[in-house]
Design brief:
Number of strands: 30
Distance between the termini: 46 Å
Strand order of the largest sheet: 17-18-19-20-21-22-23
CATH architecture of the largest domain: 6 Propeller
Structural class: alpha+beta
Largest sheet: 7 strands, antiparallel
Helix content: 25-40%
Length: 613
């Protein structure tokens, strides 16, 4: 939608425009004067014409018809020189004459001039817009207050705690030095103690710097939240005003267009608000502070490590261990999973015509698991015991389509990446048949979302979602899309990009290059951060990020294993599962925090579940 600066030109103060040659945002319309006034000019107007009837922006249907505004609203967002003419029911998309033959030639469409929308629906949209505007303000206030709290107390408390911990270690080292260096000459004692003090300073600086980086990372997430709220709020406000403006019975076409744009924007904002309920509000800071306390408690055990050194320990060995303390501190910040058990669960149905091929999985907040069975064209819903409780058959005509990936949009809605192409005796005739299909989950029941289907003009092999934006892999490119199907940008180009994942805070994207056997870490705008290669990275199948930010990679055939990578995407932390446990046929991986398990989907009728701590 238009930004605040764009909307001023549609209903600007006519007095300011004519006399001062400036465009000022108008807040009232006078019926007798037939002019719009800003707040300042309105005071003068009321002084001169106190009996004139005025209408504020809450009564915009009483305002005059703006030809500029109507032309802008009816303009196609993709083909800006064309006007919107039809509405595609299959894709829930407004189309111009140029959109229609390109992307919707087989879809059922209706002419916008004949489209109808009920007054009750308009009222409900108005209520939803106001509710989401209020929620955005609340979230913005929460983020701003937490930023202030971080700046005033978080950093100071953490540094004090870290220094206290290091003082305890320092005291322990003094005792050791007095006990082990009695027979050492004074000059050598001073030299050794200086080396030990220097090493401790390095440990302290490393720990404090890590704390500062954590602080900056949290602050950056909160600032992004504030900026996003500031961006969404005026757009919702503008849509609310336009909905009121177009609700007059003589503006049916305009009302339908605005209503559709309201629905798309409301869905985008609601998705953003849901994600940030756990990620940006106060809960994340409480959890982070709790995690930091646990981390410092573990680090304080380093004093016991030093104390446990025997009196006759070689000084060089002692200093070598002390030099490694910084690395130990760093390791505590990234929890490494440990596998404690394994189980298998059958997901094959009697109606399946082929062996299951689980190409993608998605964990819902309820603990239920969605799996994509490519061979049987089904999306299956598993309960917390991994039993199939419902399924959907994805049916297409004359088109080969494959269920490649899926991601959660809201707690009840999932997007499924469906890659496809038309063939004729193995010849590819049309690659523009890939779609993103939306599915809802309601009380253990799956339903296709009618009219919610994004048709793409490229392949679709991987998908991830964060804050109302979809990240889609095409096999060679990584794209960013809005939830209504509008391509925002092409983020990255490489020879082979099959899957992608996004960090919980949305600041990092992870993709893998299957041909070059490497993991690539990007910023949200596609800037390269890191490239990771390793002998164990062969035939990478999937990449997954847990809610806590741990990165999991699953490989197959040539190197069948599950690896845990650090959140920066620079090094391997552990090999969690080795080949003989995965049997070389693994295709997908995900982590369930509800059951504390890593789940592996395979080209088999069973899925593997590894219980981890």
């Amino acid at each position: 939608m238009a930004a605040h600066s764009e909307r001023i030109s549609f209903f600007c103060c006519e007095s300011c425009k004519n006399k001062k040659n400036i465009e000022e945002y108008s807040v009232y319309y006078c019926e007798q004067c037939q002019q719009c006034f800003c707040r300042e000019c309105c005071e003068l107007h009321d002084y001169l014409f106190s009996k004139h009837v005025k209408y504020d922006r809450g009564n915009m249907k009483k305002w005059p018809v703006s030809k500029e505004l109507e032309a802008f609203l009816q303009m196609c967002e993709i083909h800006t020189h064309k006007q919107l003419e039809t509405y595609c029911k299959y894709h829930s998309q407004l189309c111009c004459s140029k959109c229609d033959p390109l992307s919707h030639r087989k879809c059922k469409t209706i002419a916008i001039n004949s489209a109808k929308i009920h007054a009750d629906d308009v009222h409900q949209l108005s209520v939803k817009l106001r509710i989401n505007m209020r929620k955005l303000k609340q979230l913005q206030w929460c983020c701003e207050s937490e930023i202030q709290d971080l700046k005033s107390s978080y950093q100071r408390r953490q540094e004090i705690m870290v220094r206290t911990m290091n003082n305890k270690i320092n005291s322990t080292l003094d005792k050791i030095a007095r006990g082990t260096l009695k027979k050492t000459r004074k000059v050598e004692q001073i030299k050794i103690l200086r080396l030990m003090r220097s090493t401790l300073d390095d440990v302290e600086n490393t720990t404090i710097n890590e704390t500062k980086r954590t602080l900056l990372s949290l602050e950056a997430s909160l600032v992004t939240g504030v900026e996003t709220c500031i961006r969404h709020y005026p757009e919702l406000k503008l849509l609310h005003e336009l909905l009121l403006y177009s609700s007059d019975k003589d503006k049916k076409k305009l009302c339908f267009i605005v209503s559709r744009k309201c629905i798309d924007k409301i869905q985008q904002v609601e998705s953003y608000l849901y994600e940030n309920r756990d990620k940006l509000e106060c809960a994340i800071l409480k959890q982070t502070k709790q995690d930091t306390m646990e981390y410092l408690s573990k680090v304080s055990g380093l004093g016991r490590l030093v104390e446990s050194m025997k009196a006759n320990t070689d000084i060089e060995q002692c200093l070598s261990k002390l030099a490694g303390l910084a690395r130990i501190v760093s390791r505590y910040l990234s929890h490494v999973f440990t596998v404690q058990g394994k189980s298998e669960h059958n997901v094959h149905l009697s109606s399946d015509s082929d062996t299951c091929c689980i190409t993608a999985m998605c964990i819902l907040p309820s603990g239920q698991v969605l799996v994509a069975d490519e061979n049987n064209y089904k999306v299956k819903l598993l309960n917390e015991q991994y039993r199939v409780v419902d399924h959907l058959v994805y049916v297409t005509l004359m088109v080969h389509r494959y269920l490649k990936d899926m991601c959660m949009i809201t707690p009840r809605e999932v997007a499924v990446a469906v890659n496809g192409y038309k063939t004729d005796s193995w010849k590819i005739l049309d690659i523009g048949t890939s779609v993103v299909q939306f599915i809802t989950v309601t009380q253990s029941k799956l339903e296709l979302v009618q009219g919610r289907n994004l048709q793409l003009q490229h392949d679709c092999t991987g998908i991830a979602h964060h804050q109302g934006e979809l990240f889609i892999c095409s096999g060679r490119e990584l794209y960013k899309y809005s939830l209504n199907g509008k391509m925002i940008s092409k983020l990255y180009l490489d020879r082979s990009i099959d899957r992608c994942a996004v960090s919980p805070t949305g600041d990092k994207l992870y993709i893998f290059n299957l041909l070059q056997q490497k993991l690539v870490t990007l910023t949200r705008d596609g800037t390269l951060l890191a490239t990771f290669t390793h002998p164990d990275l062969k035939t990478i199948r999937d990449v997954h990020v847990t809610p806590a930010g741990q990165v999991l990679l699953i490989c197959g055939r040539m190197s069948p294993n599950i690896l845990q990578i650090d959140s920066e995407g620079r090094s391997k932390l552990a090999t969690l599962v080795i080949g003989r446990d995965v049997m070389c046929s693994q295709l997908s991986v995900c982590y369930s925090s509800t059951t504390s398990s890593i789940i592996v989907g395979m080209l088999r009728n069973n899925i593997l579940v590894f219980r981890v701590v």
